[in-house]
Design brief:
Two copies of one chain form a homodimer. Chain A contains nine helices and twelve strands. The first copy, chain A, has about 260 residues and is of the alpha/beta class. Chains A, B: Pfam families: FLAD1_M (PF24102), MoCF_biosynth (PF00994).
Chain lengths: ~260, ~260
């Protein structure tokens, strides 16, 4: 953020920080564009010690955006949005979020200066381009090193571009600026086994290791059935203990565990 | 569906049919797994003449699933879910949806018969495998030609597997069984132009063609800026008229339109 940046803080072990993401765009809901931002934002949040709790994909429709933003911003530490902040008529995210917040839309002086600088050698700032300097009143900016037009931070809301490479640059600019908790660590153990054959083993292993969650993700390859078991925990020792126990239990069934997954 | 299948119907032009999708799974929210079902379900729905209005991604948590299912099932013609119907402890979708509906979970006799048949040569039905025969009371089944365990239909809710190839098989089994409206047709025109340069042109073209929506999707390739303009409309003639007008307007600016997109 270019001003009022949150002070980077050491991870806090005493509570869980959560985030939600609203993906805005008819192109996702029509199936034309395959979303890449959910996984990208999720992975980035994980490194910041923040858990992605919920995602909504909504269309380029003000009521839909307002509903999603207002539902999610109050029950999460952070709310991220992607999409709809370009210069064209279908880019309505800023207006919708301002409406959700009950504040006016202004032309942000710092954003205007950024665009004037960026477009100085690219034909100058036009009315359409100036749309990308509009923010809800009271916002700060998220730098965009790829294409000039900045992202927007307002309170706990982070409004980012939808083009995944530009989203990535904005996330990069935010790295280390948000308070988070202990990151969730994970270890994956793969096995050529049908998950139904080891369902009890998985349930019992999870139960025996408090604070640990085990997810089971089956796959079908080479005409065979396999699964990856993902163990998640914020404590490295507990994680290692559980991973060792699960590997041993699979080996005891003569099912070879594959560290790191298959 | 294996029983109470909806009668296939000719597209109805008199109203819009909508659907919502709930993607269930910690693996999506952790960033480990890149979702493929949103685009797949969206594209399939489009062909059925049904519009995907909204998507929620929620964790393997009963309260989160109940909230999403109950919010979306009442305001859409159809609700689809993916994920969480396997045999392991983290598969809680059936229990959560039954709770949302206020009905008990039963072992569905037809689903049990399918599993007994499928596992006859694969070690037999165990307690874990029988979990995949559980449905909310009053359900019918969606065939799964890949891995036995069926999907579930309850009222306007379609509960499908999360592994994308299995989801695809279930969608295939549902093809043509749901009532829909006129499919949204689309035409894409690409252009090596910054979208901010043609923002007014796009806005005016959309305004001049009622019932037509134009989306603008910028990209950055080969060191250059371009955009694809996607025109959407349920009427083929209106679509063609708008596409021709947009192409002509771009050509008038000496910006070569590329039919089909770039």
């Amino acid at each position: 953020m270019t001003d009022s940046a949150t002070t980077p803080a050491a991870p806090r072990a005493d509570r869980i920080f959560t985030a939600a993401l609203v993906v805005i765009g008819d192109e996702i809901l029509s199936g034309r564009t395959h979303d890449k931002n959910i996984a990208q934002v999720a992975a980035w949040l994980g490194v910041q010690g923040i858990r992605l709790k919920e995602v909504r994909v909504v269309s380029d429709d003000q009521d839909a955006i307002v509903e999603a933003v207002n539902a999610l911003r109050v029950r999460n530490d952070y709310l991220f949005t992607t999409g709809g902040i370009g210069p064209t008529h279908d880019d309505i995210t800023v207006d919708a979020i301002a409406a959700a917040l009950g504040v006016p839309v202004i032309v942000h002086p710092e954003a205007r200066a950024i665009l004037e600088d960026y477009y100085a050698t690219r034909g100058g700032v036009t009315e359409a381009r100036l749309r990308m300097a509009r923010t809800p009143e009271g916002a700060s900016l998220i730098p965009n090193r790829y294409s000039g037009a900045p992202g927007i931070c307002w309170g706990n809301i982070f409004i980012m571009a939808g083009v995944p490479t530009i989203t990535a640059g904005m996330l990069d600019a935010l790295t280390g600026t948000l308070e988070g908790g202990a990151p969730v660590l994970s270890e994956t153990i793969g096995c050529w086994v049908g998950e139904s054959e080891v369902a009890d083993l998985l349930r019992n292993t999870e139960k025996a290791h408090e604070g640990v969650a085990i997810g089971s993700y089956p796959f079908f390859r080479e005409g065979k059935t396999g699964a990856n078991f993902v163990i998640r925990c914020t404590d490295a020792d507990q994680l290692a203990t559980c991973a060792a126990a699960l590997s041993q239990a699979l080996a005891d069934l003569s099912r070879e565990p594959v560290a790191g997954g298959i």
